[in-house]
Every structure is written in C-alpha cells, then in structure tokens.
Amino acid sequence: MSEETQDEPPPEGTAPAKEDSVEKEDHDQRFKKTLKDNFPDFIKMFFPQYFDAIDFDSVVWRDKELYVGEPIGDKVILDTVAHVKTKISVDPDRPDQREWYAIIHIEIESRGSTDLIDQRIVFYYMMLMFEFGVPILPIVLFIKMNKEGIGQETLIWSIFNTKVMEFTYNYVALGGLDPLEYLEKEFPLGWALTSLMKKGKHDPIQVATQAVNKLNTANITDLNRTRLKDILESYFQGTEDQIQEVKKMWRIDPAPKLVPDNESTLARVIRELNEAMAARDEATAARDEATAARDEAEIRGQINSRRDSIRRLIEKRFGENAAQVVASKIDAITEMDKLNIIFDEAITTSSVEELRKLFV
Predict the structure, then answer these.
(1) pLDDT digit string (tens) for 182-237?
(2) For the chain, what are the domain ranges?
(3) What are 239-242's contacts with CB under 8 Å, separation 24+?
(4) Which residue among 13, 141, 150, 203 has its CA within the 20 to 30 Å range from the CA of 45?
(5) For residues 73 and 93, what is the distance between their CA atoms, to the nearest angstrom?
(6) For residue 64, how far is the Cα from the chain centroid?
(7) pLDDT of residue 323
C-alpha cells in the first residue's frame, strides 16, 4: 500500500477562515452538491482515463443509507453515488450486451488517516454491488490527507499465508497537489479546491486571488460560482489579517451590469422586474428539463437493471445457451410491468419450453 503521512498542524498564528462548523454536516452537503454539479470536470481533471467511457448525460445520483456494524452501528448515507451509462463494455462476460451501466462511488474523507476509510470502503462496495448489481468504481477524495496526490490504494487480506482478498480503490489527496498547476487548468472546480492543495511553497493570498479572479469571470452559472467560491473561502487558511483581506474578494460582483445614466426610476424598476421574471422562467424551464431527463434516465436504468436480472436468473436456472436464445427478446421489452411479470414467472417455470412461451 502507498505510504501516507499525517497532517501537519497549521503554523503558529494561523486560523481557519470560518468556524470548525463549516466542515460539519451542513457544509459537507454543500460540498457534495458542488461536486455533483461539477462531476464531469471532477472525472476529467483527476481521472481522465475514465472520462471518454462515461455518458454524463445519463447520470442519476442515488442516495444509499447504510448501517455500519448493525444493529447498533453508525448510520451512513452514501449520497455521492453516480449511476451511469457507459460507452464501452464494463462486463467482459457479456460482450454482446447492448447497454452497460456502472456505479461511480465518490467517498469524501476529511480525516487525517486512512484507517477508517480502509475498513469501510470495502463494505460500501459490497453493499452497493448487492443493491445495484453492476460494476462499481470506488473513488476516495481525501481533503486533509498529506499523501501522493492521485493514485491507487490496494488493500490485501490474508490468512495462513494465503491471500484471500485484494481490493483497489482510486484516490485523490488534495493536500498532495500543487495549486498553481490546477490554476493553469480550465476547470473551475479545480480553482475552488486550491485552498486544500498544499504541495509546494506558495503565497496563499496570491493563490486565492488568482482563483477568485478566475471564478468571477468564468462562463458558469451564478449559483455554481457562489458554491465554488464558498468552498474556496471555507477552506482558506492563513493569518487573521490574510483571512480578512481575502474575504473582501468574495463580494466582488462577477459581471456588473451597465445601466444608462439617464434611466428613470420607473424604467429601472420595469427593467429589473423583467430581468427577474426572465431569469425565473429560465431557471424553471432548466429545472423542469433536468428533472425530466433525470426521471427518464432513472426509468431507463431500472428497466436495464431488470433485464439484466432476468438474464442472470435464466442463465442460473437453465444455462447460458437458454439465456442467449431469449436475450434479444428481453432487450426488446420496454415496459417495466411486463419485465416484472417475466421475472416472477422465470423463478417458477420448470422448463425451457415454458420459458419460451413467456416471450410469445
């Protein structure tokens, strides 16, 4: 496994930009929401080898509630679980399958050690595999760990000198990345995360200034800009004077509007009202469109998952040849109710002949 080091204490006389509470549940949720909104950039920036294989238009975020150490263990909600359609096969045993799906699980770890996440990441993997039945790509985002920036961690379990299990997950350790390198990239998410990047000796004020200037002029929505700047501000560390100096930059209007000097009060009110209504209508239309796309993708994912369950069931009961014979007929069914009926019947049917009748 890769070598790791514990976080160094902040230099004397420094303080966090906000109270410790920003790293608790409320801020964690804002952090995760921002990560979801910038998911394609996250993958392309840190794991470009996977980017072309993922259909980002198909992403459906799944919340999964788990209890670690049941029946009295801690409740854990996995809410950065992306159910995606892939552009290439993720199942070498099914090369003829027409559509492929996968789960990308991003676990955000704010502790300074891998001990706990190493114990839990495998449990999370198994529970997600049981729930969704598709290949899973686990990624851990360390926001405090000082270790090699991007890599893989391999966990091995053995007994009696016999290796019984090997598990590998991808990770990003922000503390091991150089902020100047990511300021040069064209990823707004990367600019926001520079407050957490510690590799190299850089003036935090200069880094923050460059990041804020880039975010203020970036071609992104105002909501996304606000959330990204919130991450940048929340994790900025420095002296009290540095913190106050940097906070002044958060309030800069990224795109001040030009208003004619001779505009009357009534004209200004009408203009602002029209702008507000247009922005509201645009936001509503975008929200409705996004909701419809998510609903459609979720239904499509459920249908494909049920098709795969039927194929596996038939293969287990009647063999691979039988599953191949009806594979195209299964793929042709688009109604979830009919798929559910076939699944139930396939459990009890006693012969291949009866099985074929289900598809007549």
Answers:
(1) 999 999 999 999 988 887 778 888 888 889 889 988 888 888 888 898 888 888 77
(2) 4-250, 265-357
(3) 239/13, 239/14, 239/15, 240/15, 242/204, 242/205
(4) 203
(5) 37
(6) 13
(7) 81
